[in-house]
Structures are given as C-alpha cells and as structure tokens.
C-alpha cells in the first residue's frame, strides 16, 4: 500500500482532495495506522477514485456521486455519461468561439467606420426561381448552420446533380432574432421534379416558387456568417442613401458549394428585395 503522498502521485490528485474525500466518506483509506493516524491507500482504489473524478467533471453533486459510486455503476454507463458531457462541452466551446468571432468582426466594423464605401453594392432585377426547401424556427445560428449542412448532404444524395442550383437560405423573421430564427433552407432548382422528399427528422422538402424582385440589393460576403453584419450594414447604408426600403425577407445564396469544415472560405451573395420609400 501507499502512503497518502505517494498515492497522490500515482493518482495525480492532491493530498488535500484525498483527505476531503475521506472526510466525506467518498474514498476512505484502505488502512489507517493506529497511533500516528497515517493514511494508506491501495492501487485497487484507483477505479473508484477515477469514477469519482469523472462524475465530478460531469457536474454532479457530491451526494449524487456517492450514490452512483456506491451502486457500482458499470464502465459502459460512465462512458455514456462522459460522452454526453463531452458533447455539451464541445457545444459550449463552439458557441464561445462563435461569440469571439462576432466580437472580432464588430471590432473590425468599428475600425472601418471611416471607410463607408458601398461601391460593391448592386441593385438589379431578380427573376423568380423554383426552389426545393424546408422551413423551420431554429434556436441559434449554430443550429441553422448544422441544419443547412444536413439538408445539403441529404439533397445532394437524393436529387440529380444537374437539377440543383445554388444552396440558399431565406430568413423570414421580420426582425433580427439571434435565438429564434424563422429560416427556410434549400436549393434553387435548375430543372426536374424531385418528388416527395423528407429529411431524416421527418421535415418535408417541397418545391415552391420564390417570387421575382423588381429590385434586389445585393453584396457578396467572403468569410464566416459572424461577419454578415459588415455586409448588411453596407447594404443598409446604400439602400438608405438611394431612398429605398426593404420589401421582403433577406436571402443568402452560396455562389460556391460551401465547405462546412471551412466556412471562413464561404462565398455568399446577401440579397434584400427593395422598393422606393413610401411604396408600401
């Protein structure tokens, strides 16, 4: 058996934590020397200690941990708990990374406030399109991106390549809602009739006509979705200066098929139907 200091080196946890777990009854020493009170631990206690540490990292209370380790939960159940927690941590890290990119793009916008050029905003007529799409309200832009990825993979696996035009998204929310986004995702169709299609989650994909726009204000974004406000701000300045107003949901059309593992390389045309102010 090991003295508490040596066991702490084997287990790579502090003596202070071992003493604390002893006081709580979570991990009692294998033996305590009479008189001196020295604690001794056995290597056979490592599995129990590892379970305690795993459950602690999962965010369980000490009372919950005691109940689980005393009921001898199997390794497969612990693995399932840890895998679930890992997914939650990964999601949190991805959300924080997206928030960081948003902050960086806002800083870039502040730095470029003296450069208000809108030369790359274009107003043109946009014809009607047949689109294959599905519409849903999602909880975040990360969720929208994941749904777009799933739709892209599903449609390309079930519809002939020659029938598909660009991938697109249409945000139907009348105002910006970062945590409740009414979004339609799908493809512009070149020709053909895809037939009845349902995504794996049961959501239907249907064909409809996307109306023509007499005037469409557009500008190309190269980069991450978190930088979209740089382009919408530019479009907004141009539309206001020219005496127009928005006249329908905004659209995002991928001019190149996206690489979902390299979204920073995305080339997207951001579009807003517009009309002369006072028309509506």
Looking at the structure, what is the overall shape? elongated
- Binned, the helix content reads 25-40%
N- to C-terminal distance:
84 Å
- How many strand segments? 13
Structural class: alpha+beta
Average pLDDT, all residues? 85
Description:
The structure is a single chain. With 280 residues, this protein is α+β, with helices and mostly antiparallel strands. Helix content is 39%, strand content 27%. It is built from 7 helices and 13 strands. The strands form 2 sheets. Strands 4, 5, 6, 7, 8, 9, 10, 11, 12 and 13 form a 10-stranded antiparallel beta sheet that branches. Strands 1-3-2 form a 3-stranded antiparallel beta sheet. A hairpin with a 6-residue loop joins β2 and β3 (39-41). It starts with a strand and ends with a strand. The mean pLDDT is 85.
Please give a handful of descriptors for the protein shown.
about 280 residues, three-stranded antiparallel β-sheet, alpha+beta, ten-stranded antiparallel β-sheet, about 25% strand, 13 strands, 7 helices
Set out the fold topology.
Elements: E1 2-3, H1 4-11, H2 15-24, E2 31-32, E3 39-41, H3 46-57, H4 62-70, H5 75-111, E4 122-126, E5 129-138, H6 141-158, E6 164-171, E7 181-189, E8 197-198, E9 204-210, E10 213-222, H7 228-241, E11 244-246, E12 250-254, E13 267-276
Antiparallel strand pairs: 1-3, 2-3, 4-10, 5-7, 5-9, 6-7, 6-12, 8-9, 10-13, 11-13, 12-13
Helix pairs in contact: 3-4
């Amino acid at each position: 058996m090991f003295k508490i200091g040596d066991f702490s080196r084997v287990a790579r946890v502090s003596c202070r934590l071992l003493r604390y777990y002893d006081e709580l009854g979570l991990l009692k020493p294998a033996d305590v020397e009479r008189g001196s009170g020295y604690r001794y631990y056995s290597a056979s206690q490592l599995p129990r200690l590892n379970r305690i540490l795993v459950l602690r990292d999962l965010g369980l209370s000490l009372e919950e941990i005691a109940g689980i380790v005393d009921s001898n939960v199997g390794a497969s159940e612990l693995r399932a708990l840890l895998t679930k927690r890992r997914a939650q941590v990964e999601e949190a890290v991805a959300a924080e990374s997206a928030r960081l990119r948003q902050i960086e793009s806002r800083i870039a916008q502040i730095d470029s406030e003296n450069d208000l050029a809108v030369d790359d905003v274009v107003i043109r007529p946009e014809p009607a399109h047949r689109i294959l799409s599905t519409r849903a309200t999602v909880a975040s832009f990360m969720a929208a991106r994941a749904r777009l990825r799933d739709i892209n993979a599903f449609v390309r696996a079930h519809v002939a390549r020659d029938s598909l035009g660009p991938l697109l998204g249409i945000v139907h929310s009348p105002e910006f809602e970062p945590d409740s986004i009414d979004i339609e995702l799908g493809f512009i169709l070149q020709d053909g009739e895809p037939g009845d299609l349902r995504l794996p989650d049961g959501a239907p994909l249907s064909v409809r006509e996307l109306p023509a726009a007499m005037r469409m204000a557009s500008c190309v974004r190269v980069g991450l979705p978190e930088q979209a406000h740089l382009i919408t701000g530019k479009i907004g300045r141009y539309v206001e200066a020219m005496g127009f107003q928005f006249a329908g949901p905004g659209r995002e059309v991928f001019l190149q098929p996206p690489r979902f593992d390299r979204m920073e390389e995305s080339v997207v045309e951001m579009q807003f139907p517009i009309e002369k102010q006072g028309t509506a």
